[in-house]
Structure formats: structure tokens, C-alpha cells
Design a protein that fits this description.
The chain has 2 helices and 16 strands. The chain is mainly beta. The strands form 2 sheets. Strands 1, 2, 3, 4, 5, 6, 7, 8, 9, 10, 14, 15 and 16 form a 13-stranded mixed sheet that branches. Strands 11-12-13 form a 3-stranded antiparallel sheet, with no helix packed on it. It binds 2-acetamido-2-deoxy-beta-D-glucopyranose (NAG) (3 copies). Keywords: Signal.
Amino acid sequence: MFPLVLLFLCSLSLVASIPTWMYAPGQSQIGSLVPGAAYIEALGVGYQPERASAMQRHLASEEQGHLGNVTVIFSRRKRSADLFYINRQQLWQFANETAIFPVNLVNTTTVIPDTGEVPLRLVTGNKDKNLISSGTWRWRGTMLLYDLGPLTNGGVYYDCPQPTGGSTVITFLKPVPTPDGCNLVTLHAWSQLSD
Ligand SMILES: *[C@@H]1O[C@H](CO)[C@@H](O)[C@H](O)[C@H]1NC(C)=O
Ligand SMILES: *[C@@H]1O[C@H](CO)[C@@H](O)[C@H](O)[C@H]1NC(C)=O
Ligand SMILES: *[C@@H]1O[C@H](CO)[C@@H](O)[C@H](O)[C@H]1NC(C)=O
């Protein structure tokens, strides 16, 4: 992890640019930002083992550098995973050398029958009309948790394949049975240094 951070810093200084905190005016401390940045690994018992044992699943934006759904990718396939960071209870994602996106939950407003509950979907950006704005993110040990008032997701997420390919990541604020076709995952950063 550490060499990657250095690499990241080097590429920053090479292009002589500093990421802007999209939607977060007044916060631009790159120095306090980079040290806690980490890849987030998705661990799930339901995942089929891959042939290449070194392959890991990581949290990433569906389309790198663009706002939209958050997904789980094989970090060694196609492209690298994204870096994330928690600052003031907000989860952020490095989009590219010049942009950092907030990660939020969107209320899908549709009950999944098996669960009796409405799933909340992870997205980058904060423009969705069903965005939940008052939730907070935190690490418990290596594990990523989301809280909304007295409610918490307990660090439990589901990686759900989409009919159109790829997958979305959803969560609930109470324990539910695993939705059909989805994999229960927990999300871990092994190297974050703060928050
Ligand atoms: C970084 O991402 C932002 C938002 O998607 C985009 O406007 C900008 O052009 C990107 N910059 C680079 C260097 O790719
Ligand atoms: C995100 O996922 C939802 C649910 O599958 C889908 O309806 C929506 O179109 C996706 N958004 C984008 C920007 O791909
Ligand atoms: C999500 O939307 C449903 C249906 O509109 C609503 O009942 C539920 O309270 C919302 N959940 C959250 C966490 O806002």
C-alpha cells in the first residue's frame, strides 16, 4: 500500500494538480487526505473461488472517473481498483488526479420481497433525488460501516449482479435474509491510518 501512495503522490506532483473536493468547498488538505486512502476489499463467503488465487475483489466506480453506481470488480482484470478515504464521517473516492467524489446511499424505494425491506444502493455523487443525506461512514477495525441515526448496516453489504452485466452494491439498516442472487459481503481496508 505505502509504495502506491508514494506513486500516487508522485503522479500528483508530476501533473502539478491537487484534487478538488467535489461538493465539499473549503476542504483541500491533500496532505491529510492521502495517508488514509486505501483500497476496499470485498470479502464474501458466497463468492465462487477464482482460478487465479491472487485475484481479489475490490470496491470501484462502475465507470472509472465518473459518477454513478459503485460496484465490485476483480482488481487485476481490466483496470485497477479505486482508492477511498473517510473524512468527517463522509466516504470519498479518488476519481482521478483532479477529482474526488463523495460516496452516498440512494434509497431504491422498492421493497425486495424476500427481505421485506427497501435496499439502499451505494453511489458516487450527491445529486440523486432519493439520496440519503444524513448518514455517516466509519471504520470498525478494518471494516466499513454505515450508520443512519441510531440505525446501522452492521458492516453488511450485498453485491448484486445486474441483468445488464456488472453489479451494484446495496445495504440495509437492519438484518435481512440475503436477497436472491446477491452475495453477502463485508468491505475492508487493510491499510487505512485514520478515522
Ligand atoms: C476527472 O474527473 C472529472 C469528473 O468526472 C472530469 O471532469 C475530469 O475531466 C477528469 N480529469 C482527468 C484528468 O481525467
Ligand atoms: C445504477 O443501478 C441502478 C439499479 O440497477 C440502475 O437502475 C441505474 O441505471 C444505474 N445507474 C447508472 C448511472 O448506471
Ligand atoms: C426508503 O424509501 C421507503 C419508501 O419510500 C421508505 O419507506 C423508507 O423509510 C426509506 N428509507 C430510508 C432509510 O430513508
